[in-house]
Model the fold of this input.
Amino acid sequence: MAKLTLYHAAPSRSSIVHWMLEELGEPYDIHLISFKKGENRQPAYLTVNPMGKLPALKHGDAVVTEAAAICTYLADEFPRAKLNVPVGDPRRGPYLKWLFFGPSCVEPAIAERAWPRKEPPPRTALGFGDFDSVMDVLAKGVGAAKPYLMGEQFTAADVIIGSGLRWGTMFKLIPERPEFAAYIARLSQRPALQRATENDKKLQAEQEART
Ligand SMILES: N[C@@H](CCC(=O)N[C@@H](CS)C(=O)NCC(=O)O)C(=O)O
Done:
């Protein structure tokens, strides 16, 4: 089987993929990249991701970047883990909606609120519209999750939306809503997320000892 390698800085957006890999249950390696040492801007890593950003995933000769794209790729590439909704299933539309809603609405809406621009662009020019609408759609979506966004099946969409909500909540960048708290509490019960979080603490310590 082609080898899976996650380029990772613990904790960061690559922790999203770390959680996804734990859910997947396939063997993988971690290649730590130090932001402090600037390794993400060095030629060796720029050949993997010319953006100098983490995460990146190598699967054999294939390289995938962008956290949500990596989660979508892994879910489709390893269907036996049942983390995807396959082509032809009527739930595929909402599944993809949530996978794209994370990076194109949740993340920019939170960033815009946390670091406001002096002159905000018009609502129509912003792909996410406005912060409150994003929060309302999110609250409705996760409030209806029984127990997950796609119903009984946990999918890559939960990894993406759950990671955004966990990050926003941790740094108090999103409003406290009972729907968010209940969904996050449910996700926190998942052994794969617990393993990835624990392992991230060890990796962070390891990385700090190296710098
Ligand atoms: N759009 C990318 C964003 C990745 C990203 O911004 N990663 C941060 C870590 S949380 C990073 O690599 N920062 C280092 C830098 O920009 O120099 C994704 O979703 O994967």
In short: The chain has eight helices and four strands. Helices lie at 14-24, 43-46, 67-77, 92-114, 131-143, 156-170, 178-188, 191-210.
